[in-house]
Amino acid sequence: MIGICLLLYSVAAWTYLYVYVSPATRASLMDVFQPDYQQTYTFRSRISANLYSLLDFDYTTYNEEDNSFPLSRKEINLLYRVEKDGQLLASNTDASLASPDALPEGYNFLLIWDGSKASIWKDGQAVDVYGDGFFRGVEEDWDVPGYSNSASSSNPAYAELTVSLAAAAKPFNPGDDYGLYGMVQEFAQARVLIIWLLLVPPVAGVALLVWSIVWHKHKVRADQAIAWFTGHIWLELKLLLLVPLTFLWVLAASCTLNLFFNQFFGGPLRYLSIPLALWWSYLHINDLRYNFGHLRNSSFCTSCARLLGRQEMGWSVGQRMDRRSVLQFILCIPFFLYCALQLPLLNQYFSLPMMVLLAAAGAGLIAAQVWLLRENRRTTADMDRLLTRIRSVGGDATTPLPEDSDLRAAAEELDQMEDKLKAALSQQMKSEKLKLELITNVSHDLKTPLTSIISYTELLRQEEELPAHVKDYILVLYQKALRLQTMVLDVFDVSKAATGNLPVNLRPLDFAKLLRQTLADLDEDIQASGLSLRPALPEEPVWILADGDRLYRVFQNLIGNALKYSLAGSRVYLTLTTADGRAEATVQNTSRDELPYGVDFTERFVRGDQSRTDGGSGLGLSIARTFTEACNGSFAIRTQADLFTASVSFPLTDTRPEPEVDA
Fold first, then answer.
1. What is the pLDDT of residues 99-134, one digit of tens each?
2. Tens-place pLDDT, residues 190-203
3. Neighbours of 109 (CB within 10 A)
4. Are 112 and 119 a contacting pair, CB within 8 Å?
5. What DSSP character marks residue 401?
6. Neighbours of 366 (CB within 10 A)
């Protein structure tokens, strides 16, 4: 309420200010917030009034003791100088005030009336006084003689005088005369008054109004706290409490109707049913509002079912089915007992044969339940054996189920499926083994003739009498032989790793140091690539267990792959981080070509662009993955659009290399 009152007052005050107050008064009010008092309407009015006072004064009878002079000689914040035909008439300063450069220290404003026009300088810069030459009386205009439409410009007495006025940049207290200093002090006092009368009330009103709205959140928090409490009450108890609430609403409705008909119904305590019913209903509605989605969580029956479910987690499928069958039979027992207890009562209305028939039917129903329970237990036992057989796939055990078992056919089909899977797996393993052996043998057989070819081409390159075109042919032959040799060695290494014959020497090494060494060795290639490589490696050692030579080859391939296939002028990032007991090195670059979707780049002979003719073999990433996994590390490739990321991670180790002993 206070906030609304303050806002109404503020609206009235600001309306009055803009409707009933003159523009000049509003400009004066706005002056109090101007940091530079010389930029205010009040200052311009004060200077204009002082100028006219000096121009209109009768200097024929003037003397320094004359108290009628419009300006005080003690006003040191405003200096003046009046001359006529070069003769000084009045002044309160020894300075000439002839130009901005002649101003004393501490003064930055100068107005000079030369007899025909006024010139103003502020901070050494000339101020446009007349604009287009017409005086309009707006707050920004200087009210001085010299305008085309000003009557004062035709006063002949003004043309005989030269008047200079200089104002201090920051007025200070001169003692007994305030002048400009008093004006600045009035600004400060008026500023405080305006803030408290025109600015604080609307701000306070808005703050109080917002606070009253925000206070609603506290009610929401209270509702949530109450809902948290009622959420722990069993659902069954809440449903039970709806019964007395219904009667309470009937009583509240009766009391309300009696009040409507001007009748007093019972005692005053009865009328407490109205607020009690409202609050009781509020609790139920509030509980439904916040706990509707999980009412079953606070149910006693649900809790019992969950407890039973947690106990069943440790049981086999057969045990669960057995216990559920037993529970089903137990739930039927109360019905059987009720029927048995009603037999004496039924004897009064039915004959003996009918009673015997009902008893026989009940006994038969019980016998059928027992038989079904036993058959279900047999089926669940067979299911347990079948599940045990499924879990032991790959072993030599069979599934011995009786001929009349419900799951006999499923067990036989499972055995046949397992035999087929074993045969297919054996055939695939044999095929893979033969393929790897073939690759290994071919690679090994190619190494010797390739070495001879490379040796002879090197000898041919040393011959000086061969024609130039023959030397070119030999160079191409030499380069292709080297490339083929590299591919053969790569295939040989991949084949050995796939067959488990790749020798690795795991020992503690500094991961960060290895990466720095790799970068140093590839520095020439990095500089020639035109790419910007941004390493982010920790200064402290990062110890892992790995084969240094194999891991060096991994990052040689990864960085070389990035240098070869990155977008021209882009950046390549190499980072090493540690988290959760592992060290992960990441090489990230932007691909020059579009990366195909769904391609495993770590497969042998797989390339990002099948049309490339850059000499790559498609084995670089495959070797990197194979060597990483051979060193018990993890290798992963991630692509997002044209962003290619390869990561290599190893577990951190507390083992340190043994110090070298000097011989």
1. 888 888 889 999 998 888 899 999 889 998 888 888
2. 777 667 667 777 88
3. 22
4. yes
5. -
6. 14
